[in-house]
């Protein structure tokens, strides 16, 4: 993998032991003190990774305005994303998982945003590459991309225009109480 390609790989796709842990992926609640410590450690690590991720702005926009997805995405839990949507008066349809479902080799279900995120990160790679990266079939990748295209082309979206990047970041900071560094500072 070249360094340029490596820079485009979403860091979460390489840190599966953190982002795919049930505490983050399924919003599972810790049941005791030991689990609460693990939950805190995982959340802290995932937050650090997201806050320095080069795909953060695209990822946050997709997760807020594009798909009602589960798991820890763009530094937010699904509950925090619901609060951000409420602040911004954004409504999204839940993904139709029955129609979209694909199963990773780990047994984890994949969602459209997994495929779209990798497609954006690797626009020049064949779809086979995405299928191999996710451990799913080529037809699953195509099905998710068709679904994403269909959603993008829907003639009567629930809102005429999504919130701006600035509005998204402001709402993110308000809900998470974290400061998003300016682009120049993030690139430094
Ligand atoms: S911001 Fe999005 S793409 Fe980047 S590490 Fe977090 S979840 Fe992955």
TrEMBL record:
Coiled-coil region(s): none
UniProt xrefs under Pfam families: Whib
Gene3D superfamilies found in the cross-reference section: Winged helix-like DNA-binding domain superfamily/Winged helix DNA-binding domain (1.10.10.10)
Residue span(s) of domain 4Fe-4S Wbl-type: 11-83
Cross-referenced InterPro entries: 4FE4S_WBL (IPR034768), WH-like_DNA-bd_sf (IPR036388)
Top-rank taxon: Bacteria
PROSITE patterns membership: 4FE4S_WBL (PS51674)
Protein name, UniProt field: 4Fe-4S Wbl-type domain-containing protein
Species of the source: Acidipropionibacterium jensenii
């Amino acid at each position: 993998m070249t360094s340029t390609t490596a820079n485009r790989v979403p860091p979460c796709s390489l840190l599966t032991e953190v982002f795919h842990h049930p505490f983050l992926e399924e919003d599972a609640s810790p049941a005791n003190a030991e689990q609460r410590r693990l939950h805190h450690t995982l959340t802290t690590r995932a937050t650090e990774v997201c806050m320095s991720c080069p795909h953060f702005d695209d990822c946050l926009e997709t997760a807020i305005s594009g798909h009602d997805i589960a798991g820890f995405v763009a530094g937010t839990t699904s509950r925090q994303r619901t609060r951000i949507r409420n602040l911004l008066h954004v409504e999204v349809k839940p993904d139709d998982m029955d129609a979209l479902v694909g199963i990773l080799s780990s047994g984890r279900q994949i969602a459209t945003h997994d495929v779209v995120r990798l497609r954006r990160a690797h626009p020049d790679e064949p779809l086979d590459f995405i299928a191999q990266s996710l451990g799913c079939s080529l037809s699953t990748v195509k099905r998710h991309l068709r679904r994403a295209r269909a959603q993008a082309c829907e003639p009567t979206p629930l809102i005429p225009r999504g919130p701006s990047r600035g509005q998204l970041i402001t709402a993110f900071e308000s809900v998470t109480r974290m400061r998003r560094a300016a682009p120049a500072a993030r690139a430094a």
